[in-house]
Specification:
- The structure is a homodimer of 162-residue chains.
- With 162 residues, chain A is an alpha+beta fold.
- The first copy, chain A, has two domains: 92 residues, Arc Repressor Mutant, subunit A (Orthogonal Bundle), CATH 1.10.10; 70 residues, Dna Ligase, domain 1.
- Chain A contains seven helices and seven strands; from the N terminus they run H-H-H-E-H-H-E-E-E-E-H-E-E-H.
- In chain A, the strands form two sheets. Chain A has a three-stranded antiparallel β-sheet.
- In chain A, a hairpin with a 5-residue loop joins strand 4 and strand 5.
- In chain A, helix 3 crosses helix 4 and helix 4 crosses helix 5.
- Chain A is globular and about 50 Å long.
- Chain A binds a DNA duplex (25 and 25 nucleotides) through helix 5.
Chain lengths: 162, 162
DNA sequence: ATAAGTGCAAAACATTTGCACTTTG
DNA sequence: CAAAGTGCAAATGTTTTGCACTTAT
């Protein structure tokens, strides 16, 4: 049945969880799987994904699992400028995000691209950039640039989160 | 009584409201006044300020007034990376924000300081920066740099919003 | 008078928490 | 079995909304 399937499919995932001191339950494997796409997802995205295979899973469980994964350094909580929290698999190297204001698409930006920022900020304000926080940069993605010359008001496409 | 006082003190403010097509009520003048400090405040900050002079003012009124002021271009809704919304008086020139992760202090950053950013973002991702969105940059303010060498965990000072 | 603005109570949200029950090791 | 994890229901905190009442013009 579903329980066993989920557990078998996620041998590597189970190991990841164990290493983090978490018991590999079906629910947690599904959360990890939803995160595994490499994209940026909300708790609700994860819940929806998990419910497909495990309908009884509860939001609390998703939130608690995410907390545990973040604490274990497996997941990362990311502010993308909206009112909800986003989560992604933790990467080893720091990166930032460009977020399309039209469709919500998100891309990574190497830390190096912001190299010039720290000195400029320090010079103007004396503030020092934190070495581990990510910066969310509102922007327009290439697809939306060509698709919608200037209709900011109406037809928000909202492609899925990439 | 309070009503008249508030109204007299805010002749210029009343004019601002009228120009925006808003009737200058005591409540709105107080919202404007709370915003007037030039800082970044939450709806609740404004509510607290307004209640000092007008105890019966309601959160809904603050929110509705802020909506109106934002729509009129008088106020600006600003994402400072927290879970609540911040508001400030709209400036004519675009600027960004550095936000101290230790105490919450906020400073402005001239758009020019980010001049190098747009080309770097375009080169790496193809995304184009939006001309009117602000970027919130998490950082550590000078005061917190010297005050707290490395106690990220405990003594969060949380000075008032500047 | 008429439209705009207000207060209140209730709803909408995303997220958190207390607690009893179930699962894992 | 004990500890960890789960579901459920209720609470949280911020923001929004419906509606009847008040105020500004």
């Amino acid at each position: 049945m579903q329980l066993r399937d989920a557990r078998n499919a996620g041998d590597a995932a189970a190991a990841i969880l164990r290493r983090a001191g978490c018991r590999p339950t079906a629910q947690r494997l599904l959360v990890l799987q939803a995160l595994g796409g490499g994209g940026h997802v909300t708790a609700d995205d994860i819940l929806v994904h998990a419910r497909e295979r495990y309908p009884s899973i509860n939001p609390s469980t998703v939130y608690r699992t995410l907390d545990a994964l973040v604490a274990a350094g497996i997941a990362r909580r990311t502010d993308l400028g909206s009112d909800r929290l986003y989560f992604e698999v933790a990467r080893t190297h720091r990166h930032h995000h460009v977020v399309c204001q039209e469709c919500g698409a998100v891309e990574h930006l190497h830390d190096a691209a912001l190299a010039a920022l720290a000195p400029a900020v320090a010079a103007e304000t004396g503030y020092r950039l934190t070495p581990d926080q990510e910066i969310a940069i509102p922007a327009i993605c290439p697809a939306c640039q060509s698709a919608a010359p200037a209709d900011a008001e109406k037809g928000h496409h909202h492609h899925a989160h990439p």
